[in-house]
Amino acid sequence: MRPVNAPARGARRRRWPRALLALTAAVGLLLLGPLGVLASGTVDLDTPWYARSSERTGLAPDPAATREAVVQVYGARAVRWRGAFAIHPWIAVKRAGAESYTTYQVVGWRAMRGGDAVVVTEGAVPDRHWYGAAPQLLREHRGPQAQALIDRIEAAVQRYPWPRTYRAWPGPNSNTFVAWVAREVPELGLDLPAHAIGKDWLGPSTFVAPAPSGTGWQVSAWGLAGVTLARDEGLELQLLGLGFGVDLDDARLRLPGLGSWPGP
């Protein structure tokens, strides 16, 4: 005699291939962005990292001529093929009256060698190319507002919970670090782009947190799947670290690989 619940079990078995097919199709669509970046030649796949440009871009005010405080956040495409998927970000600060910048970032190879991945560079040139990739200015504050942010940024850097842990995907990585600082200092108002892979990694046991901009909230399962809803970020869904959605505040789409469309 056939068990009563046999049809239900059969229906569940048939749903699995369909779900897997739908997931595969969704990932395939999301990969069109990074593949398009690779096809466009935007990412340099040939030049050795040590031979790439590190020239200034002029985005940072001359510290000797600028007496006011400055806070800037930069992002540039990662090195080689990773640049088709993600950016590498860093934070630069200059106090009022100071004649040099200090930068804060996470560099993965240091953690992989057992060291501290958080790199603090005094006297830095913050607007240099990142191994040949031109940086984009993601956020800037000047004057008294910037001066008030600097102490809080520096304190947040010291509290970063994963200084000796680094995973390029899904995190924690350099985007995780900058997003964490932004959540600790919401007045920074940082809207990280969709291709800042790792920004949605909230920790091994945290699944709900403020959005990096401080203007909304996000839910994320280890940076692999989640959703962000905020005034600055708009609505962004994440699947396997790839973010996509719509930013109504800036009238742009948020797309994997591209960051946003139309671009800045």
Structural write-up:
The chain is of the alpha+beta class and about 260 residues long. It has one domain. A 7-stranded antiparallel β-sheet has the order 6-7-8-9-10-11-12, with no helix packed on it. The protein has a 5-stranded antiparallel β-sheet with strand order 4-3-2-1-5. Helix 4 crosses helix 5. It is globular, with a radius of gyration of 21 Å. The model has no long low-confidence stretch (mean pLDDT about 95).
N-end to C-end Cα span: 67 Å
Structurally, the number of domains stands at 1
Instruction: List the strand order in the largest sheet.
Output: 6-7-8-9-10-11-12
Largest sheet geometry: 7 strands, antiparallel
Q: What gross morphology would you assign?
A: globular
Oligomer designation: single chain
Structural class, judged by helices and strands? alpha+beta
Share of residues in strands = 25-35%
Q: Spans with pLDDT under 50 lasting ≥5 residues?
A: none
Q: How do you describe this structure in short?
A:
Helices cover 25% and strands 27% of the residues. By secondary structure, it is of the alpha+beta class. It has one domain (29-261).
Keywords:
264 residues; alpha+beta; 5-stranded antiparallel sheet; 12 strands; globular
Set out the fold topology:
Layout: H1 6-30, H2 32-40, E1 70-77, E2 87-94, E3 101-106, H3 108-112, E4 118-124, E5 136-142, H4 144-159, H5 174-184, E6 208-210, E7 216-221, E8 225-230, E9 234-239, E10 242-247, E11 252-255, E12 259-261
Antiparallel strand pairs: 1-2, 1-5, 2-3, 3-4, 6-7, 7-8, 8-9, 9-10, 10-11, 11-12
